[in-house]
Amino acid sequence: MSGFNLLHLITKSPPVALKPCSLPSGARRTKKTWPMTFTKEELKERLTPKQYHVTQERGTESAFTGEFTDHKDEGTYTCVVCGAPLFSSSTKFDSGSGWPAFFDLLQEESISNSDDFSYGMHRVESTCSQCGAHLGHLFDDGPRPTGKRYCINSASLDFQAKDSSPSSRAEGGAKLGGEEKTEL
């Protein structure tokens, strides 16, 4: 069809009513308010620049550079922003992607998922359901039994070893991304 014919078709056609469509991903919409909130100043003081960029500006760390990519210790991976437990080390696997990957959550309520259309593609973004921190993305190419792959930035995670007490975070210091930072 020539450019002239296409222009004629478009300009002479009656208006078409557009209908909203639902997305096939099955992802839930992200909540707009979170149970835990922090000011920008608090977060910039507590987090490293990389952690802030990933969790608050929806950034992505470079593949194969994260602290927890090849991490094998037993324990619980938590949100670096609020400390909410997210993943067990028993669900971590090597996906070959360069980011920590998990096939299941500690609790279904741990993470909120929403559609992400950045970079001209459709993905499912995973955020902490307690504070809204960007964690990474969810894909449907994981191992059994779930078939899911939570591809998570190391910068959005902290780690609680199986043999350490969970109260150590509340005693004033937390290890964030390899640097000692003071809890607020």
TrEMBL record:
Enzyme class, UniProt record, top EC level: oxidoreductase
E.C. no: 1.8.4.12
PROSITE patterns found in the cross-reference section: MSRB
Cofactors: Zn(2+)
Cofactor note: Binds 1 zinc ion per subunit.
Protein keywords: Metal-binding, Oxidoreductase, Zinc
Residues spanning the membrane: none
Catalytic activity: L-methionyl-[protein] + [thioredoxin]-disulfide + H2O = L-methionyl-(R)-S-oxide-[protein] + [thioredoxin]-dithiol; [thioredoxin]-disulfide + L-methionine + H2O = L-methionine (R)-S-oxide + [thioredoxin]-dithiol
Pfam families for the chain: SelR (PF01641)
Domain of life: Eukaryota
GO biological process, one term: protein repair
Cited function: Methionine-sulfoxide reductase that specifically reduces methionine (R)-sulfoxide back to methionine. While in many cases methionine oxidation is the result of random oxidation following oxidative stress, methionine oxidation is also a post-translational modification that takes place on specific residues.
UniProt similarity note: Belongs to the MsrB Met sulfoxide reductase family.
Name of protein: Peptide-methionine (R)-S-oxide reductase
Organism: Labrus bergylta (ballan wrasse)
